[in-house]
């Protein structure tokens, strides 16, 4: 049985990065406790707050965000953090080595119905001479990530993380330790499962409408096999299913707000999940290009997403060829 820190040391992870991951896990354990208390702690339901995304914040969005900010900004390795729930980056130690972006609670629309949610994080190096409170410090493509992962608060709490040497899974024990339970995760290349919010079908590009229509034709259609649809409305749960047994997950561009390429956010959803998916042998795209190649321009910029099993994403890409 290998503890998280033992496994990180075994993989030659630097002491500074281990110290930062320890802070992230301390925060996620505190969040997990709040989630488990639920109604008993009066933490369910919405707050009066509206975040920079225009979303009404759940009480637990704010609680989770506050826990992560307090713990991370107290860590000397952290130069600054950017969060879904913060309009602007928050500076930490001016001599800190790392920047952290996070989605404190992903899938929070599921909180009040007790369905899995998670915390997503991405770690970058802070550029020399740039404040960790400055947007410009974070304008780095997903290829620059030092580490990324999520903690899924499901029937069990699982940390899924990569430091660029593959993807590993660690389950939170009753005693409060993250213990290695899956090493070198590989996504099956083929799949018969797809996930997309079908209620947006009328807003998609024709390319996506045509692909999903063929998925729905099953054995009789051009794809020649039966597909099942899976949709949890928590990106962490969709990605965890794909890392565990394959699949394709899409949140594509839709015409309701043409200026926005999609609903999901690049810096703390698209990039960290893409790092995990690629490290596990899958593909993660905008439905046209690799997400991690995007040069960010804004902290909260959005990105269309089509990720998962390599062969299925390649099939989806064949429908998305702009002539
Ligand atoms: P968040 O709860 O952090 O705002 O993210 C929710 C995201 C993502 O988790 C999920 O895949 C997607 O929103 C679901 O969107 P719809 O409810 O519009 O389908
Ligand atoms: Mn949100
Ligand atoms: Mn999210
Ligand atoms: Mn969120």
From TrEMBL:
Signal peptide: none annotated. Its cofactor is Mg(2+). It is found in: Cytoplasm. Pathway: Carbohydrate biosynthesis. Its EC number is 3.1.3.11. CDD domains: FBPase (cd00354). Mg(2+) 2 binds at residues 103, 106, 269. Homotetramer. This is Fructose-1,6-bisphosphatase class 1. It comes from Amphritea balenae.
């Amino acid at each position: 049985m290998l503890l998280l820190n033992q496994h990180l040391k075994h993989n030659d992870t630097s002491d500074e990065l281990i110290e930062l991951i320890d802070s992230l896990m301390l925060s996620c354990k505190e969040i997990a406790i709040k989630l488990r208390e639920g109604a008993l702690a009066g933490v369910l339901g919405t707050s009066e707050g509206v975040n920079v995304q225009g979303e009404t914040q759940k009480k637990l969005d704010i609680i989770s965000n506050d826990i992560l900010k307090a713990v991370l900004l107290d860590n000397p390795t952290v130069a600054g953090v950017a969060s879904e729930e913060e309009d602007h980056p928050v500076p930490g130690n001016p001599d800190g080595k790392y920047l952290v972006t996070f989605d404190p609670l992903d899938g929070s629309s599921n909180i009040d119905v007790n369905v899995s949610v998670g915390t997503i994080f991405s770690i970058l190096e802070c550029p020399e001479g740039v404040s960790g409170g400055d947007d410009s410090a974070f304008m780095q493509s997903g290829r620059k990530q030092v580490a990324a992962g999520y903690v899924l608060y499901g029937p069990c709490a699982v940390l899924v993380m990569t430091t660029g040497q593959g993807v590993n899974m660690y389950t939170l024990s009753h005693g409060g330790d993250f213990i290695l339970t899956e090493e070198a995760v590989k996504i099956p290349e083929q799949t018969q499962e797809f996930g997309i919010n079908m209620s947006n079908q009328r807003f998609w590009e024709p390319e996506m409408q045509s692909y999903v229509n063929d998925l729905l034709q099953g054995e009789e259609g051009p794809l020649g096999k039966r597909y099942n649809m899976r949709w949890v409305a928590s990106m962490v749960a969709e990605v965890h299913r794909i890392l565990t047994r394959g699949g394709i997950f899409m949140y594509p561009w839709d015409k309701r707000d043409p200026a926005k390429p999609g609903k999901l956010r690049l810096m703390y959803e698209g990039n960290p999940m893409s790092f995990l998916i690629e490290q596990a042998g899958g593909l993660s795209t905008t439905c046209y290009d690799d997400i991690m190649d995007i040069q960010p321009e804004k902290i909260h910029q959005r990105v269309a997403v089509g990720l998962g099993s390599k062969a299925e994403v390649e099939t989806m890409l064949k429908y998305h060829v702009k002539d």
